Amino acid sequence: MLKKLLPYSLRKNLLDLLQPDRPGIGPVLRRMDRDKKVIFDIGANVGDVSCYLLHYFPQATVFGFEPCLDTHARLLENVAAAGFSDRFKPFRLGFFDQETEGTLNVASAHGASSMLELGAEYRLLNPHIEMVATEKIPLMRLDDFVARERIAHIDLVKIDVEGVELQVLRGGAETFSRLVDTVVMEISFVRRPREESEYIRLFQILHDYGFAPAEIYDVAHAGDGPWKLAQFDCVFRRF
């Protein structure tokens, strides 16, 4: 009921006042400089983080990228309901290390849709999630998009792409090396088999681009097995 009665920004201001150190990305963004002008939300989903970005950075234009057709529609609705459509540029598009058409495995929980199939450990930790459909999605290189749109600088890039982070980073080598100040990225230890060491490659490629970890938040642990760490979100800053 409160969501319907109060404007979005007022609700978030009250939440910051009442729960300043709550889990999630909100307090992380609130601690950042407010003068950001250009932000990319790669894997925007239904718009929760996009709305946070638009709220906390009132001078920013947020580019939101969500390739799933139904999820993209919900993204547009939620941003409009929050009153931020004038500073939001939506694209039904995913980023990869080449321009191609990909196959998205659409999940029963919208935040779990992925170009990857559900692995054994992911299924064990998320028994409630099922793949319900597949969908063809447009993919391109981040470098090509930035060149096409003539973007000269990006203050912040948030990446949450459910297992294809490395491909996004490889397709944006020039962009990340020269144009980006801060990266916020979800790092999973269960989307791909741990022995593939994908997480090490993510840290290495960001280091090669000039970034180092600055903050870890939203650490998620598995159950009682020997492998406790399931995922976390990490802020990377240019050194």
Question: What would your notes on this structure say?
Answer:
The protein is of the alpha/beta class. The chain contains 10 helices and 10 strands. The radius of gyration is 17 Å and the shape is globular. The mean pLDDT is 95.
List the main descriptive attributes of the protein structure presented here:
Rossmann fold, 239 residues, alpha/beta, 34% helix, 10 helices, globular, seven-stranded mixed beta sheet, three-stranded mixed beta sheet
Q: How are the elements arranged and paired?
A:
Layout: H1 2-5, H2 8-18, H3 25-30, E1 38-42, H4 48-56, E2 61-65, H5 69-82, E3 88-91, E4 94-95, E5 100-107, H6 120-125, E6 131-140, H7 142-149, E7 154-159, H8 165-170, H9 173-178, E8 180-188, H10 198-208, E9 211-221, E10 229-238
Parallel strand pairs: 1-2, 1-7, 2-3, 4-6, 7-8
Antiparallel strand pairs: 5-6, 8-10, 9-10
The CATH class, by name, is Alpha Beta
Task: Please state the structural category.
Answer: alpha/beta
- The CATH topology corresponds to Rossmann fold
Helix segment count?
A: 10
Total count of domains: 1
Helix content: 25-40%
Shape: globular
**Strands, total number:** 10
On the 0 to 100 scale, the average pLDDT is 95
Major pleated sheet = 7 strands, mixed
Domain Methyltransferase FkbM: 41-211
InterPro entries: FkbM_Methyltransferase, FkbM_mtfrase, SAM-dependent_MTases_sf
Keywords: Methyltransferase, Transferase
GO molecular function: O-methyltransferase activity
